[in-house]
Amino acid sequence: MFLFKKPVVLASSFSLLMLYALSSSAATGNIFVSVENDNAVVVLDGKTYEKRMTIKTSEQPRHLQFSPNHDLIYVACGDGNRVDVIDVNKLSVVNSLDVGEEPEIFDISPDGKYLYVSNEDDGELSVYDLNAHKIVSQVEVGEEPEGVLVSHDGNTVYVTSEVANMVHVVDVTDKASPSVKKNIVVNTRPRRFALTTDGKTLFVSNEIGGSVSMIDTADSKVSGEIKFTPKGFRPDEVTPVGLVLSKDNKTLYVALGRANHVAVVDTETKTVKDYVLVGNRAWGTTLNKDNSLLFVTNGMSDDMSIINTATLKVEKSIPIGRVPHSVLIDE
């Protein structure tokens, strides 16, 4: 009996080990960067930062986002009026979605079933059903919508309007009939969002206002504002766009656009701790998994800066292509 049972136990253990190995090695370690004027997504090796390949996309690829299980990357292609879909393992475009005119930014519902897309030319937010492969509803928001962010519970979508200088709070509980339930006035030309893990505080970058607004999501009111004053730059050159929170929510990194710096903000004191000089027109931001490195795309110097978050020094600058926009890391 012992001899019979032993191989069964070993086989079972081996199977579990194999399953663990497969699941733990699922991430490719690649870095993906959208390159707006090259109509492409560049793939870099996550360890050497060498260019592995270039994936051609529809026109003007900008915002990138993983599907919830990280097997797909969605790419907003503004001039192509599409969201392209890249298979992370095949490293190729496997689908192209008709999501309406001039898709700027989108977010994905927590269950992975819907895309919420800002359509800049139409002044609308589109709800795209990823299973039915079609737009199921649209709701009018302010002129030139850009930033889109879904609340953690999936019931609310926040949308920035660059012209109205507002954040629109959209109820998407009923996907077939979304409705704007509140409009929040912020500073001039709001662009992007970051949301705390507890969902209580929403950060909004104001490009022309040169600031980040903080919104209390409980009452949908502005609770504060952080201004940026890097040395050597006029106020009109301080144009914050991309922003990302550390996983402990204690630090907010803000790309300051034409000011060519990243601001490092202490979210508890609401003060700027430091400014880090990067490339020309700092744009997109993302952190690696352990938050030890910050990746910043520089649109006008055609490169990407990698910042050590412990030392706040640029460790490397990598040529990417013509107008790099967004960056993702598969890890």
TrEMBL record:
Keywords, in A-Z order: Signal
Protein name listed in UniProt: PQQ-dependent catabolism-associated beta-propeller protein
Coiled coil: none
InterPro entries: Host-pathogen_enzymatic-act, N2O_reductase_N, PQQ_b_propeller, WD40/YVTN_repeat-like_dom_sf, YNCE-like_beta-prop, YVTN_b-propeller_repeat
Keyword Chloroplast: no
Pfam families hit by this protein: YNCE (PF21783)
Signal peptide start and end residues: 1-26
SUPFAM superfamilies tied to this protein: Nitrous oxide reductase, N-terminal domain
Limits of the YNCE-like beta-propeller domain: 80-150
PANTHER family tied to this protein: DIHYDRO-HEME D1 DEHYDROGENASE, PROTEIN NIRF
UniProt keyword Signal present: yes
